[in-house]
Specification:
With 161 residues, the chain is an alpha+beta fold. 35% of the residues lie in helices and 24% in strands. The protein folds into two domains: 2-129, no CATH class; 131-161. It has a four-stranded antiparallel sheet with strand order 1-2-3-4, with no helix packed on it. A three-stranded antiparallel sheet has the order 5-6-7. A hairpin with a 4-residue loop joins β1 (36-40) and β2 (45-49). The longest helix has 30 residues, at 131-160. Residues 8-161 form the Sema domain. The chain crosses the membrane at residues 122-142.
Length: 161
């Protein structure tokens, strides 16, 4: 019953998008269970959450989208642990994207996936790049760590006087 309702909601949403932007052409990268999507009217893009992938499709050229170039892989972690609990390696223990939500001005997205029955979330830029976000965090902590090391050395030196 739930599968029928989900499928019907998906079809209704696709029909609403077709109404807004004209006819939409075909897009598929295989059986990846495309279930979650976010329409970004400002950037003329449709973000599609699937199994182990997040796709960014330009609304005016969906049929020209590349399965590799226009996607971000979100591979599951700890598949072995999931399989050991009796789940299917090729469906249940994959990372099915369930949430795509814009953050702030829409230049970033909050994305959440099932991650082999161990939910995981990401903050991803609209360009489908999350590396910049992680580099920012690394540099922030390195700077903070350097400051603490410098303070520790100074205290030890002063204490030795």
């Amino acid at each position: 019953m739930d599968e029928v309702v989900i499928h019907q909601c998906f079809i209704e949403n696709v029909n609403a998008i077709i109404h807004l932007f004209g006819s939409i052409q075909e897009f598929t990268c295989g059986k990846l269970y495309y279930r979650t999507f976010y329409l970004d009217e400002k950037r003329n893009s449709l973000y599609v959450g699937a199994m182990d992938k997040l796709f960014k499709l330009k609304l005016n050229s969906i049929s020209h989208s590349s399965c590799e170039r226009d996607s971000l892989s979100l591979e599951p972690s700890d598949v072995g642990n999931c399989v050991s609990k009796g789940k299917s390696e090729y469906f249940d223990c994959r990372n099915h994207v369930r949430v795509i939500q814009a953050i702030g001005d829409g230049s970033r997205f909050y994305v959440c996936g099932t991650n082999a029955h161990n939910p995981k979330d990401w903050v991803i830029y609209v360009s489908l790049n999350y590396l910049i976000f992680y580099l920012f965090i690394i540099f922030f902590f390195l700077k903070k760590f350097k400051f603490r090391v410098a303070n520790t050395r100074k205290r030890n030196f002063i204490g030795a006087k």
